[in-house]
Amino acid sequence: MSVKDALREQRIETPSWAYANSGTRFKVFAQQGVPRTPYEKIDDAAVVHRLTGVAPTVALHIPWDKVDDYGKLAEYARDRGVALGAINSNVFQDDDYKLGSVCHPNASVRRKAIGHLLECIDIMDQTGSQDLKLWFADGLNYPGQDNIRARQDRLAEALRETYERLGADQRMLLEYKLFEPAFYTTDVPDWGTAYAHCLQLGEKAQVVIDTGHHAPGTNIEFIVSFLLRANKLGAFDFNSRFYADDDLMVGSADPFQLFRIMHEIVLADALKPAAGIAFMLDQCHNLEPKIPAIIRSVLNVQEATAKALLVDHEALAQAQQDGDVLGANGALMDAYNTDVRPLLRELREEMGLDPDPMAAYRRSGYAEQIVRERVGGEAAGWGA
């Protein structure tokens, strides 16, 4: 397959919450024209797909995107040229979850949390979504606060009940995070914990790698390679970080890291949609305008992917076999240092798209249109 063909088939899912008002733990700076409803989030996602050609699905977050009729919402998305993607659960905002959700010492709280996870699968049945994405804020702030091993048992029980409710074509994607909001220990703190639970559950349970959820200096591409080898890499949440879970635009902090990750994906022939890896964005910041920021993230992923596809694998393999350290590194650096923007502009023209999606958005007048039409949207808070 040619580089252009591979890029033409690439799929990047955008998150509904990134179109709405969002921000850091410090402040949410409201913007005019942000979506007021899940339907308006879909409208914005459809614009991103029309301009980039590679973002045909939008992930939902429940209850932020709760509606009375999910079949109607899915139909609305199809009419606008996109589809509903992963369903993200939320067991971290209710007061009941102060001491945890599925790991909470109180059985009634755990039952409430599991009930929400099962509700999300019910929604998947209505939307046609294949992926249930789980992230748990569960953890401890102080030594002795709870029994660490017992919390793992509770987590395993909740995951098993949820897993057994999945349909034949549905998956459970388990995300991990080093810390936050708990500071002593997190119940799913790393890829190894997520992998161990998924391994016990079965083939429909896979790991999500959020690129912002690691300790500084973590070699994320090693994790990618390991999980690919084990057939347990289900999805990415792409974003960038300088310090912690910054949720900045993907590729903005360390574009070379994004290239190295995509190189492992290409090397394993796991880029095409049939490979089953969901490439999702997960950015949620408070300064940049929403739609242009998402477009920029899509373009950044495309550029990193294009460079990864240009690696001379034959020369790389030969240098590795010969023990030529600098030659092997040079094969990667030659690809990374290639300006792939002309290639991507040419590809977009061949796809009937504007070669510069950012400029096309500015010219479209959509930003001005939604400011006029979405009066009051700026009053909505994070997650609305």
Automatic annotation (TrEMBL):
<dbReference type="InterPro" id="IPR036237">
    <property type="entry name" value="Xyl_isomerase-like_sf"/>
</dbReference>
<keyword id="KW-0464">Manganese</keyword>
<dbReference type="InterPro" id="IPR050337">
    <property type="entry name" value="L-rhamnose_isomerase"/>
</dbReference>
<protein>
    <submittedName>
        <fullName>L-rhamnose isomerase</fullName>
        <ecNumber>5.3.1.14</ecNumber>
    </submittedName>
</protein>
<keyword id="KW-0963">Cytoplasm</keyword>
<keyword id="KW-0684">Rhamnose metabolism</keyword>
<dbReference type="Pfam" id="PF06134">
    <property type="entry name" value="RhaA"/>
</dbReference>
<dbReference type="GO" id="GO:0008740">
    <property type="term" value="F:L-rhamnose isomerase activity"/>
</dbReference>
<keyword id="KW-0413">Isomerase</keyword>
<dbReference type="InterPro" id="IPR009308">
    <property type="entry name" value="Rhamnose_isomerase"/>
</dbReference>
<dbReference type="InterPro" id="IPR013457">
    <property type="entry name" value="Rhamnose_iso-rel"/>
</dbReference>
<keyword id="KW-0479">Metal-binding</keyword>
